Amino acid sequence: MNTGEFDFEEENKRISKNTSSIKNKILVMSGKGGVGKTTVAVNLACAMAKKGYKTGLLDIDLHGPNVPKMLGIDNIQMAAEDGQILPYKFSDNLRVCSLAMLGATTDKPIIWRGPLKAAAIRQMLGDVRWGELDYLFLDCPPGTGDEILTAFQSVSDWRGAVVVTTAQEVALDDAKRSLVFAKQVGLPVLGIIENMSGFICPHCGKESEIFKKGSGELLAKTYGTEFLGRIPIEMGIVTLEDSGKAALLAGTEGAGAKAFDAAAEKIKKLSKF
């Protein structure tokens, strides 16, 4: 028997075992970087945890693992037990795992080719002991390359994907590629989030349209998927993230936090229990 094939099958069994008790597995993806995908993933996970759902957040953006920084746990290292990784208990309902919590640092870039990246993602899927979860959100790297394809192919029962875009034409073009990718591989799309949709002035509260507005909703209609909402640019959200606090865990009642909560409610209605 070929040892490599045997090891691959054993890894598949571990992945299946460690993800079998997760009811809704959701990929958060974007066609390009810089659209706020990680911000969306973090706040959606926090929203579900705040609603009382057992939630996991797995950061598979190997070249830019920013989830721990946004949650203020970038100095935390995860523990291991019986050969398995224990996700960090951020709160009663939220568990977090990231390569940045396995020894990766900001001053040491990951310089890996595709096979190494695929192996790392499969190891995280197979070795992290999540236990029973209502939701697992995967913060994926931008694009439609090795990492997201590996994650998709390693787990058989994805609930679907959330595609993040801004209203800029270049972002929308790349979001279309993500939607076509999902269709070609058979990945359901739960919906589209239009991020950075209007800037809310911290002084007067007035909203200004920096980018165009409404293109994300039009894209959702064109591709026959749910529009999950618009997230405005708010200085409060930026400040909270830089200080390691998600908007939905900081008690803020700003427009951004309300938009994330509303998007989470729509995802909840599309979930399976």
Indicate the topology.
Layout lengths: L2 H17 L2 E9 L6 H14 L4 E5 L7 H5 L7 E3 L2 E3 L1 E4 L2 E5 L15 H14 L5 E7 L6 H9 L5 E6 L3 H17 L3 E12 L6 E2 L6 H8 L4 E8 H8 L12 H15 L4
Parallel strand pairs: 1-7, 1-8, 2-6, 2-7, 8-9, 9-11
Antiparallel strand pairs: 3-4, 5-6, 9-10
Descriptive tags:
11 strands, Rossmann fold, globular, two-stranded antiparallel ribbon, 273 residues, nine-stranded mixed sheet
Termini separation: 40 Å
The CATH class assignment is Alpha Beta
CATH topology: Rossmann fold
CATH superfamily: P-loop containing nucleotide triphosphate hydrolases
Number of helices, where a helix is a run of at least 4 consecutive DSSP H or I residues: 9
Give the helices and strands as they follow along the chain: HEHEHEEEEHEHEHEEHEHH
Characterization of the model:
The chain starts with a helix and ends with a helix. It is an alpha/beta fold and 273 residues long. The chain is built from nine helices and eleven strands. Strands 1, 2, 5, 6, 7, 8, 9, 10 and 11 form a nine-stranded mixed beta sheet that branches. Strands 3-4 form a two-stranded antiparallel ribbon. The model has no long low-confidence stretch (mean pLDDT 89). The protein has a single domain (21-268), classed as Rossmann fold, CATH 3.40.50.300.
Brief summary of the model shown:
The chain is an alpha/beta fold. It is built from nine helices and eleven strands. Helix content is 39%, strand content 23%.
